[in-house]
Structures are given as C-alpha cells and as structure tokens.
Amino acid sequence: MPFRLYPTVFKRGNKSYKGFVKKWIKSNTPYRPQKRGQAKPMYSTRFGFIDLYTRKERDEVKCPSGYTIGQCLGSLRKNWLGYHAATNDEKSLERVKYYAKRIQNNQKDLGLKTTSFPHLAIYGDVFILNNKKGKRVVFEDHSALKEKQEAFEKWQAENSKKIQEKLQRPDKEKGEAIQTFADDVSPGDMDFVFDLDDDEIVPNLLEPDEQKGEERITMTDDIPFKSKNKN
Q1: DSSP three-state, residue 196
Q2: How many CB atoms lie within 10 A of CB 69?
Q3: Domain locations in the chain?
Q4: Low-confidence ranges of the chain (pLDDT < 50)
Q5: Does the pTM of the predicted model rise above 0.85?
Q6: CA 20 to 30 Å from 148, out of 25, 27, 80, 222?
Q7: Are residues 39 and 50 in contact, defined by beta-carbon separation less than 8 angstroms?
C-alpha cells in the first residue's frame, strides 16, 4: 500500500512548526495535486481573461445583471449540469431548451461567446463538440446563423404586434369601442343553470331525414370528469 505526505502544523508547548504526516492509502495511483480555477482560459469581451481574477475579485466585480462574476460562473456550471441531465431523458425536450437558453443568458452576461445548439434550433456564436477525453473535435462559427435567427425573431415580434393592433383596433365610424372588465370570479365559483327550453344555451338539434335512412343515435359518456381545480 502506498502512502502520501500531508502538510500539517505541530504544536509543542507555546511553539509550533510545520511538518508532514505520512498516511497510507488504498490506491496504487500516484498523487497529483488538483488544479484550481478554470481548466481552459475564458476570455470575456467585457472583463478580459476571467482566469486571472482572484476569488475576491470575482466576488466583487459585477455583471450587467447585477450578479457577480463568481455567481454567474456558478449559475453557468449548474445550468450545464441540468442540461446534460435533461438530455438523458427523452421526454424532457422543454427542459433541454430551458437550460440551453439559460446557458446563453449566463454567457452573454459574462461577455463570453454563446454556445450554439443547432439540434434545438437555438443558435449562438460558436458550435463546439468535445470527445470523452475532453479534446475538441468540432469547432464551427455560427454567428451568421445567430444574426439570422435574431432578425427573424425581431420580424416575428413586430409582425404579430401589428396583427394584434389591427384586430383590436375598433372602427369608430361604426360605433365600435374596446371595453375591458375584471373577471374576479373563478370558474369553480360560477353557478351554471341550464335550461333545455332556452335556444341560446342549447341549440336546435338536427332532425334526422328518415327518407335518406338517417336515424338518431345516442351514446352515454362513461368517462369521469377530472377537475383541474385541486385544493
């Protein structure tokens, strides 16, 4: 069994000195000190190289959203973990899109290049694929596709706004006006009274044509009604 040396502080009376403690471990792999900070350099157009910032500086410098660099990096890491967990579930496509958009928002806030997700129709600045060993296999520039998507979303928002304004615009010459009222009664509190003799509530049933061989068929609805209002 190999052993490792761990630094420690020994105390004898009022004096203290540094030394090492030998501990046996149940492993044959050699000890390698862990690297702190980011594994790959992260260049931000807003803050420069984020790797050069100390932990105190990351907790003090704020992004445009109001959060610090450290908080944004922690949120970015959690969103990547949520994205990879959602991709393993075939039924959670909406969760995958949700985490993909959050990842892009964190990257924009930090001033990093946004990741492209072409399989979700969500384009960013770059498209990167790494193998299981962490080596980069694919690197493509999707900035042109990102601009096209942003232009299409802007046109779609403006076009839908124009359609809504046209539909909701009243014709004053015909005496039309928009009326607004507050609906403060929930559907569960409404009292519905059905009158079979009221033509406004129950429409006239179609009479079957016996000469054409038509007849009236009635079917029972045995499916129970599930209420959406659950206390």
Answers
A1: coil
A2: 22
A3: 41-112, 115-165
A4: 37-38, 193-194, 196, 200-203
A5: no
A6: 80
A7: no
